[in-house]
Amino acid sequence: LVWLLVLSLVWLGPALGGEEEDGEGVVEEEEKEEEVLSDELKEEGGVLVLHEHNFARALSEHRLLLVEFYAPWCGHCQRLAPAFAQAAATLRNESSLARLGKVDATAQAALANEFGITSYPTLKLFRDGNRTHPLAYTGQMDAKGIVRWMRRRAGPSATLLQDADAAAAFISSQDLVVVGFFKDLGGEAAQAFYEVAGEMVDVPFGVAEAAELFQAYGLSADTVCLFKKVRVWQGFGGGGPSWDPPSPHGPPPWQFDEGRTDFPVDPVRGLDTAELTQLLRVHSLELVMEFSNETSDQIFSAKIPHHMLLFLNKSSSAQLTLRDGFRVAAGTFRGKVLFVVVDVTGYGADVLPFFGLTPADAPTLRLVKMENNRKYRMDQDTFSDTAIRTFVQAVLDGKVKPHLMSAEPPEDWDTRPVKVLVGKTFEQVAFDETKNVFVKFYAPWCSHCQAMAAAWEELGERYKDHEDIVIAELDAMANELENITIKGFPTLHYFPAGPGRKMVEYKSARDVETFSKFLENGGTLPEEPPVVSAVPPPAPPKARDTHPPR
């Protein structure tokens, strides 16, 4: 279930998100007598407990203070709490200058308003007692990620490399390192490099200005270099992919990427931090990634706009050979399309339902457009590198229609109080010009959807005999629509009768009486004007696909 939630954030369409909006899921609590607070700094599990009376003191006593603004009822906050405490203990054991604190933003409204807290958890770093410009936390929400991020903030973001021996030792110390060569470490380009190094906490950064190092690495101008240890692909072993160092005895089957990639600093434009960050993210990835617990964060944090997925069964030697053509094609689209192998019998098994696949469908290929989670299906007759390149380029050129999933409609879908819509029946029902159709788009695992399920059923009962009002629902995990993208759960849309293919988003209270008021007023509520948009009709169907579905 946890993995299904994670996948909804990436390839799988609408997002729950990593934080909860202010007010979501609030539970009523008995009023407590107001506690008299002082500026004393108390701790819970090594984490400072902060409020408006001791916040200033905490800032003055701790040079680096990472503060979590949380809500007691927030599930994300509850899951973060153990990791946050573990990170606090690790940093304290290291005698680090960094400390962690927390603020119950629901009880400390003044602090929440001062720092613009609207969702939970929100983490902000306060440096040198400055409370006017806190830095938003950008690391991973786990103990290791928090510690890495704070270590990089507490010390220099890049290691100064004084000579050739120090540089060689640094470069060989990890599989992946970044070194900035700058003639002037006080210049703007070097400062931009330090800023990037402060954000990319999962990669070691070094910096050099010595003339001998420019000469040793064949450089004459400011340059950022990404060094990667060269490895050789030997295939899949019993426990996963098998990598070995290059063999001195003959050519390897093929080589893992390049050993070094240079990014020269433009003498006119200088060094753009966002551009450099993206280049380093892209080139730090393997040319073809295997989807696993260890690589999932890398895959989705790279912000590459398209993902090309090869679903295969690792236990089949015949299917493993398909990697060769897949890898050859990948080099053409580096930075534009990330190529990923998904094992349908291993870690990738849980993602299959979101693509409408089963293990028996392997091998098969899908391209996902990350902006809107549209999925594109390649002809299954060939897996050659030429065919893959042709298909990917056609998708990028807009010449391929997305492959839309649709479940089969239940036999009694239109006799229930709440009509059960699927992808293939949505158009005829939602855009029936004689009906006003109110649709709930949901995910089976969504707790908010489950909480409002009874109210929606009651609404269906109330209007089941109404002449021109239809209450319906659609499982957005199993069904996709060509011109409507669902970005969160539950999403409620009202499709009024008449021409024009109009759609009104409902964003008010989720109870039967408010729903009814909305319907009786023709899709409006006096206190909240609706957001109306036009939905274009679907493109005309192409010639029938004679290939069996994969």
Automatic annotation (TrEMBL):
One of its GO terms (molecular function) is protein disulfide isomerase activity. Its main location: endoplasmic reticulum. It is found in: Endoplasmic reticulum lumen. The keyword Endoplasmic reticulum applies. Residues 7-155, 381-524 form the Thioredoxin domain. Keywords: Chaperone, Disulfide bond, Endoplasmic reticulum, Isomerase, Redox-active center, Repeat, Signal. Disulfide bonds join C74-C77, C446-C449. Pfam families: Thioredoxin, Thioredoxin_6. Residues 1-17 form the signal peptide. GO terms for cellular component: endoplasmic reticulum lumen. One of its GO terms (biological process) is response to endoplasmic reticulum stress. Belongs to the protein disulfide isomerase family. This is protein disulfide-isomerase. The gene is Pdia2.
